[in-house]
Structure formats: C-alpha cells, structure tokens
C-alpha cells in the first residue's frame, strides 16, 4: 500500500482534498521536502491515486493556508513557516503538539499586549446593555464551574463582549480570528484544580471594574487574569516537549 493511501484510509470524515492536504502539511512540517519544492498536481495525483481535480483542490487548500505558493507555469514552492496562517483551525489541527504549545504561548503574549488595553477602552465606552450581558455571563460562569466545555463558551463570549465594547473593529477582528487558538488555550488553563472557580473570581473583578467605568482598574484586573494563566500554559508546554523528546 502506498504511504499516501495509508493516510487516506485512516481518516474518512474529511473530504478527499482536505485529507490529502493534511497529510502533505504534516510532511512539510517534518521537513520532508526537497529544496523547498512543493508537490505538483501530477505529484499528488500519482501518489494518492486521486484525480487532477482533487489534486488541484488540495493545492488550493495549502495555498489558502499560505503553506505553498502556486503560480501558473511555475513549480509549487513551500513558503517559509513564519508566513503560514496559524489562525486557521485546520492548520492548528495538523500541527504537532509541541508546535501547538509554542503557538499557545505566542497567543498568550498577544492577549497580554491587547486585552488589558481593550478592557481599559471598554471601561470608558461600555453601555448599560453590555454590562447587563456581562453580568449574565459572570452568573452563568459561576453556575457552570462543574461543566468545563459549557464554561469555555461563556468565557469566550465574555471576552468578546469586552472587545466589542472597546469599539475598535480592527482589534475586534484580530481577537475573533484567534478564537480557535483561544479555545485550545482555555481548555488547558481550565484543567488545573479549582481553575474555573478562580477564573470566575477574575471575571467578576473585571466586570466590577467595568461597572465602575475605571479604565486603570479594568486594565489591572485583566492583566491579573491573564497572568494567572501564564504559568499553566508554560507548564503544559514543557510537559508536551518532554513527551515529544521521549517519542
């Protein structure tokens, strides 16, 4: 059996181009490419036994993730990893665990840079209607501390409400685009003992600062909340790297 066919048989729930794109992405990540050359339509068709239409769609997926550059009449080129679309849920799904851990650390750095200032901006412009929604979300968090998956959804919405209250469309889109990584990050930080109880207390403190319409207090409360998560993410990344070295 061809190595490409082994991968296709392993996953049946994805469309064929997505399955092939996943296999090729993992191969590229592992460094199994020659001189930065990506696979052509013909290469893909031959290895995986798929039609040229499937091969073409596969390359479109890889190009949409900025993994390869496809130009008419030229060979397919693998782009530098720094340029890949790490905000795509597909790409995150296909990355090795140790790289995902690094990306979550980088996401956290972004959140530390942006979210305290978003909270300060929101404190100045937040409406009573938004405060009512935030109050409801804090109440739901308190009731959902035994249900991490449901808690995660409310947690995400709480932060997006603050982002929307800051009234900056560009920052709103940046935060929204990072939601897949944000979900992965919250799943890790929510695993720690009493993590959800502490998170509810942090969110309550942020909410109270917004009610007071105090930007300095809101900034400090958000920074404290994010700081509480830093250690948990760092510990998880180290565990993942140790496991990878043992393999």
Automatic annotation (TrEMBL):
Keyword Transcription regulation: yes
UniProt keyword list: DNA-binding, Transcription, Transcription regulation
Keyword presence, Transcription: yes
Stretches for region Disordered: 224-247
Record domain HTH gntR-type: where: 14-81
Taxonomy, superkingdom: Bacteria
Any single Pfam family the record assigns to this protein: GntR
Protein's UniProt name: FCD domain-containing protein
């Amino acid at each position: 059996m061809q190595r490409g066919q082994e991968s296709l048989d392993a996953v049946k729930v994805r469309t064929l181009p997505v399955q092939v794109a996943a296999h090729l992405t993992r191969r590229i990540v592992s460094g199994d490419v020659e001189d930065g050359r990506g696979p052509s339509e013909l290469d893909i068709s031959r290895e995986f036994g798929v039609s040229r239409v499937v091969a073409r769609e596969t390359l479109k997926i890889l190009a949409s993730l900025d993994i390869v550059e496809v130009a008419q009449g030229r060979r397919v080129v693998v782009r530098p990893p720094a340029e890949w679309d790490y905000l795509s849920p597909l790409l995150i799904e296909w990355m090795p665990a140790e790289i995902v851990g690094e990306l979550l650390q980088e996401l956290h750095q972004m959140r530390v840079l942006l979210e305290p200032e978003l909270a300060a901006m929101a404190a100045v412009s937040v409406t009573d209607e938004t405060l009512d929604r935030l109050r409801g979300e804090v109440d739901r968090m308190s009731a959902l501390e035994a249900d991490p998956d449901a808690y995660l959804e409310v947690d995400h919405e709480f932060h997006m409400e603050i982002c929307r209250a800051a009234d900056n469309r560009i920052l709103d889109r940046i935060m929204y685009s990072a939601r897949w990584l944000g979900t992965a990050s919250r799943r890790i930080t929510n695993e720690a003992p009493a993590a959800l109880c502490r998170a509810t207390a942090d969110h309550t403190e942020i909410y109270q600062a917004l009610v007071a319409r105090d930007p300095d207090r809101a900034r400090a409360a958000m920074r404290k909340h994010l700081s509480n998560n830093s250690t948990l993410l760092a510990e998880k990344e180290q565990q993942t790297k140790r496991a990878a070295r043992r393999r």
